[in-house]
Amino acid sequence: MQRALLNRATMRVAETTEVSGRVTADEVNLDRFHNRILKVCALVAATLIPSSLRWMFLTFVLIVPQVLWGGANPTATPQPTPQTWFATVGAQSNDKGRQALAFLPNEIWIHAGDRITWTFDVDEIHTVTFIPDSGLRPAFSVAPPGFVPQPATFDNSTTVTTLALAKGVPPVTFTVTFPKAGNYKQVCLVHQNMTGVVHVLDPSQPLPHDQDFYDRQAADQRRDLLSDRDGRSVAACGQCAAQDSLKARVVAAGTGEISATAGGTQTLAVMRFLSDQIYIRVGDTVEWTNQNPVEPHTVTFGTEPMDITAPFNLRPNPDPDGALHADIPAGPTAPFPNTNNVSSGAIVAAAQDPPGGGLSDFQTPINPPFTRFRVTFNMPGTFPYFCIFHDDLGMKGTVIVFPKPTPHP
Known about the structure:
The protein is an alpha/beta fold.
């Protein structure tokens, strides 16, 4: 009788063991499993084990699982595992003539401790740069062939940047970890109107988007930039593109258009001469005008000079309207007369002015001061030329000069 009462009491203890203090489904399932074990062990103790060993066995069953499973109290809530996000730097058309100077996408939300890996996806050089709020914008240097950027951490105390990089095999990537919450502006040191922002949230805050959203957004921005959806960029040069006309003497040295999102500015840059082939007569003058708002170009005939940004073999003075002017062959007043080597140097619009109101917000000088370049051709022939900065992207052209027609007797 005493043995039967003991057995029933033991089974009642096992059946009334409650699950309490659990915060996850896994822990609830563990407790249920534990209770089932208790019931089975109580039944075994009541039927098979001698009375002298029952209490020792029950003590083992009740205590050991608690030690193995960490007791009844839950552990601290684990922190989220740092996540790697992915984005791209730039986009280009198949012929490389259209370049999207943009971070794609140019606005990302992540958690503190997460990292972003940017892949350089174009043949044009770019940097991925983060500058502290009080930091100065540094100059850029071009990476040597085969250079592999190392991962970095940006906490808004020291500038983090790559060298100027382009796509490569294997793909060139740069990874930045963001340990502190905050909003951080992203810039390209090569292209002034190429910006973005990384919003770093505390891990307790929910993120508004996932990687699939950013992939779709990057694809949309890439398409809109490269397709020039509103058509204004190329249409602006339509009056210049008269490839087969002997009267056409104007060539656009590239064109472009700045657009913007809430995350920053992006630029479509058409790295082409429009038109890239022009026909003229001996004695005619061709004018090149850079219609890209931010991207510099050169118009260079012959050999690439040592100082690629400076003009050479030009007339001593600009034309009365301020355009640089050269002759082919070079005239007697040029440093190296009677050659076909001339170059405009860098021609580009003046840099964007600061908003004003700050102690260092001085107006940006017009430097370089020239945006137009003219060449007068004094001999017949075929004269190829190129942009020193972007000839590797296919920015080349040709001037075909016909002899003057022989007057009829």
